[in-house]
Amino acid sequence: MIIWEIEMNRSQQRTVKGQTGNIEYILTRKLVKNINMRIKDDGQILVSAPSIVGIKYIDKFVLNNEDKIRNILKKYEKIEKRSCCPKCYESGEIVTILGKNYHLLLEMAPIEGVDQMGQFLILRVKDITDVKRKEKVMKKWLEQKRVEVFLQICKEIYPKFKPYGVKYPLVTIRCMKSRWGSCQPEKRKITLNGKMIAAPKEAIEYVILHEFAHFVHPNHSRDFYAVVESFMPDWKERKALLLGIE
């Protein structure tokens, strides 16, 4: 039974009545062969389907997957949210770097910067009451950390793809909302999500290898995943480590 439906640009936000409550999902019509469903770690359910498939059939598809949806949502609820950026820049905040949680510690000092010491991330600034200054110093350190870590992993993974004739690409880093990485084979360019610095190194390695594999197969075909799996048999476990990163 359909409860309500509203238009959202090219998408529809829909609600269907399941056995244990309502299920809300966003339907997008795409040039795809099958109905596809993806559940984001924020609980949002995304469904894509060809335009020729009837809406009742799509709703039924969602309802048939109700148990799977509930189980995934329960799992996401248990996942601790991890972020590399402090929210208030106050001592005691938890900041996650490479999968490890650090307690932020503010110090007033003439030379500004950030240091990792044991379980602490020490943020040194001239004025600990200046939020904008604290943010600027922290962001500068994070940018340097991202470049250092991401480019080192790129250099470690690239030799795997040299036999395919892949040339070393331009690597850019920026914070993105919905993608951990992207590849533009025609421009020989990879873009990595800066938020990944909060993830364990194993997860970052997966994302970078995934993007390099797109230079061999610029799609998500079986051949593409065969390449990924040949170099990283545990890629699914590594991908799961990205859950909760925000």
What class do helices, strands and sheet pairing give? alpha/beta
Helices and strands, in order, run as EEEEEHHEEEEHEEEHHH
Mean pLDDT: 91
- In total, the number of strands is 12
Summed up, the helix count is 6
Q: Unreliable stretches, pLDDT < 50, 5 or more residues?
A: 1-9
CATH architectural name of the domain at 151-240: 2-Layer Sandwich
Q: If you compute it from the alpha carbons, what radius of gyration comes out, rounded to the nearest whole angstrom?
A: 21 Å
CATH topology of the domain at 151-240: Zincin-like
Straight-line distance between termini: 35 Å
For this structure, what is the CATH class of the domain at 151-240? Answer: Alpha Beta
- Under CATH, the homologous superfamily of the domain at 151-240 reads Metalloproteases ("zincins"), catalytic domain
Largest sheet: 5 strands, mixed
- Beta content comes to 25-35%
Helix residue percentage = 25-40%
The largest beta-sheet arranges its strands as 1-2-3-5-4
Shape descriptor reads globular
Short summary of the structure?
The chain has 246 residues and is α/β, with parallel strands linked by helices.
Question: How would you describe what is shown here?
Answer:
Among the domains are: 2-78, no CATH class; 151-240, Zincin-like (2-Layer Sandwich), CATH 3.30.2010.10. By secondary structure, the chain is of the alpha/beta class. A hairpin with a 2-residue loop joins strand 1 and strand 2. It is built from six helices and twelve strands. The strands form three sheets. A five-stranded mixed beta sheet has the order 1-2-3-5-4, covered by helices on one side. A four-stranded mixed beta sheet has the order 6-7-9-8, covered by helices on one side. It starts with a strand and ends in a 6-residue tail after the last helix. It has helices spanning 55-64, 66-78, 131-157, 201-213, 222-231, 235-240; strands at residues 2-8, 11-18, 21-29, 36-39, 45-49, 94-97, 100-108, 113-117, 120-125, 170-174, 181-184, 189-193.
